[in-house]
């Protein structure tokens, strides 16, 4: 798995987790969805992604987006 796929998979997973938490516990968990969305938008403009840095430190091989 490349770094690009890992970051996108992690973002999708976090959105799905927040939806489940919203349905089960509280609507406040939608803030997690908003945070993920803002982070993805910010990454698109700046190229900086905290999750990409973390995955890179964990040894995930780079893809084309986060070199």
What attributes characterize this protein structure?
single chain; 67 residues; mainly alpha; 0% strand
Tell me what you see in this structure.
The chain has 67 residues and is mainly alpha-helical. The chain has one domain (3-57). It is 70% helix and 0% strand. It has three helices and no strands. The longest helix has 22 residues, at 3-24. It is elongated.
* Distance, first to last CA: 15 Å
Write the H/E string, N to C. HHH
Q: What's the average pLDDT?
A: 93
What structural category characterises the helix and strand content?
mainly alpha
- How many whole angstroms does the radius of gyration measure? 13 Å
Apparent shape:
elongated
Task: Give the uncertain stretches in residue-range form.
Answer: none
| Tally of helical runs | 3
Q: What layout of secondary structure does this protein have?
A:
Layout: H1 3-24, H2 30-46, H3 50-57
Helix pairs in contact: 1-2, 1-3
Question: Could you give a quick summary of the protein structure above?
Answer:
The chain has 67 residues and is mostly helical. The chain has three helices and no strands.
């Amino acid at each position: 798995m490349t770094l690009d796929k890992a970051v996108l998979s992690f973002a999708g997973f976090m959105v799905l987790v927040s939806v489940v938490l919203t349905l089960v516990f509280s609507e406040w968990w939608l803030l997690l969805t908003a945070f993920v969305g803002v982070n993805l938008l910010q990454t698109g403009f700046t190229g900086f992604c905290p999750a990409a840095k973390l995955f890179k430190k964990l040894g995930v091989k780079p893809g084309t987006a986060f070199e």
